[in-house]
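1st attempt posting a full record on here, be nice pls
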Amino acid sequence: MKFIFNLIALTFIVVAVNVFDFAKSEFLSEEDNSIERVPANEEDTPTDGAILGSIIAPDAQVVIKGSNGEEKIIGMADSNGEFFINGFDAGIYDIIIKALSKDEIKTYTFKDVEIRTGEVTALGTVTLE
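the predicted structure (as tokens):
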């Protein structure tokens, strides 16, 4: 009985290997087996960094400003309080968030935020109520 079981298992393995080889030969030619590295187009290479986050500030218009002493980038949160702002050169920035309501201005500052080219820096959620 053990002999028959081993014979069936061996037959199954041989059939599985042959089926795999057949499938591989049907779908892959010799040229497909080697991976060709294609240089990225300049259009595909990221040239800036970005920030994203969200603000909880009911009934306020939210403005976000990033500054590294040389350049300033300004954006706004959408109606849900979420923002995604790109166009940052790599560097260290202070990110200032201002919530403007009828009666007051509330401010939150992120100091020394590192922005890297090709990356999105997540700032999380800021509450300005």
